[in-house]
Amino acid sequence: MTTTQQPYGEGNFGFGTEQVHAGEIVDGDFGARITPIYLTAGFLFDSFDHAQERFAGEDGGLVYTRYGNPTNTAVEAKLTALERGVDSLLVGSGQAAITVALLGILQSGDHFLSTPSLYEGSKTLFRENFARLGIEVEFVSDPHDLAEWRRRVRPNTRAVYGETIPNPKNDLIDLDLIAGFAREQGLPFVVDSTASTPYLIRPIEHGANIVVHSASKFLSGHGASLAGVVVDGGTFDWGRHPQRFPQFSAPAGGPGSPSYVERFGAKAYLEYTRTIIAGRFGPTLSPFNAFLLQQGLETLSLRIERHCRNALAVASWLEQQPEVLSVDYPGLPSNPSYPIAVRDYPRGTGSVFGFTLRGGVDDARTVVDSVELFSRMSHMGDVRSLILHPGSTSHAHLSEQQREQLGIHPGLVRLSIGIEDEPDLIADLERAFGALRSATTAEPAHEPAAPAERVVFH
Ligand SMILES: Cc1ncc(COP(=O)(O)O)c(C=O)c1O
């Protein structure tokens, strides 16, 4: 039961209204206003026949939480509306979302193309884990070069992958260009929109077919739990390519039975991915964590507005500091991605970005150790501001040469700007830069205290 007659996700309401109301289930028994946490492994069958009908999927009811749960379903409906998709699937983490989204499409012997600048965890997943499953990834060198995309297509290419605001370099991709290429080649385009969220961009409206998120980040927002989501745009015609994607066109339940395309139409991909991939590999999201995600989503636009405003202020301040070589924030006019930012991201370009210190790793160490308000953490999209040195942490497994190629210089520091007050964040960085300056002068103005004593906000 919902509270309005008008459907969500079709432009009847504004983003703020949809983030609060879309998908909500008003409990029919007690009138609980917030969709409750249905912490149950399974669901009762009234009778022998009822159980049989449920397993056959005849009445659309729930069977077992690995395949669906009312709390998760409500959050999925909210995300479907916000992304303008046809259906969504919640899973236990962003990594699980990327994995099941691609395993719904790819099988051993397949090849897929990806943009080069991606979250490092996705790269290692593709290069190492997918390789062990016989699935080969190929990263294009220049995602803006249509000719290169075309040149790299092979007879066994089955998907195209990219990130809206790539983590950590923020070198924005041109979604429309890559979507046009994927469409021309008859390939589904899968986009990780973790750093942007549907408030900043809806990849489906730019031609993506499937959207994934680490919902552990901005969507949940409070850094309390992990979650992931796969959103199906319903826009890829799987039935047109039965040789390439036989899983959607072959009889799903033995000879003569309907295929996923025949049975589920535009939702064929998501249904297959829910039941055959996630349902069997099993990365189920706990309804408890789905509830935390639901709470986070209700304030998404408010938080993102503040995140973006703070990030632009901090990036502008950093750009003026003599110790800073460059700031990778696409909202700055000096950034190479600024034209795409202006065209595609009118509400802002998120709040995760790196900046490079001239003094290399020594300067990075001083800044990371001197902040008080920023938390030294591997995470992003949290209400709290976070700081990390990628070269010695998330990208430490790469060679120095590989890091240089990716723009992960020794002096690169990554920030995830939270929703605290902007003057406090800048004051914290001013203190850290003061420590930097005093460390390089003979007579230090003040000694930075040992980090362990200063960690008061963690
Ligand atoms: C862009 C992006 N995608 C996916 C992930 C993985 O998400 P999770 O940590 O929820 O598995 C991350 C994690 O940082 C990320 O930054």
UniProtKB/TrEMBL annotation:
Keyword Transferase: yes
GO cellular component terms, A-Z: cytoplasm
Annotated coiled-coil segments of the chain: none
Gene3D superfamilies, per database record: Aspartate Aminotransferase, domain 1, Type I PLP-dependent aspartate aminotransferase-like (Major domain)
GO molecular function, one term: cysteine synthase activity
Known EC number: 4.4.1.2
Enzyme class: lyase
Cross-referenced InterPro entries: Cys/Met-Metab_PyrdxlP-dep_enz, OAc-hSer/O-AcSer_sulfhydrylase, PyrdxlP-dep_Trfase, PyrdxlP-dep_Trfase_major, PyrdxlP-dep_Trfase_small
Modified positions (N6-(pyridoxal phosphate)lysine) in chain numbering: 217
Keyword Transport attached: no
Any one GO biological process: cysteine biosynthetic process from serine
SUPFAM superfamilies the UniProt entry points to: PLP-dependent transferases (SSF53383)
UniProtKB keywords: Lyase, Pyridoxal phosphate, Transferase
Catalytic activity: L-methionine + H2O = methanethiol + 2-oxobutanoate + NH4(+); L-homocysteine + H2O = 2-oxobutanoate + hydrogen sulfide + NH4(+) + H(+)
Cofactor list: pyridoxal 5'-phosphate
PANTHER family, sorted: HOMOCYSTEINE/CYSTEINE SYNTHASE, HOMOCYSTEINE_CYSTEINE SYNTHASE
Family named by the database record: Belongs to the trans-sulfuration enzymes family.
Name of the protein: homocysteine desulfhydrase
Origin species: Compostimonas suwonensis
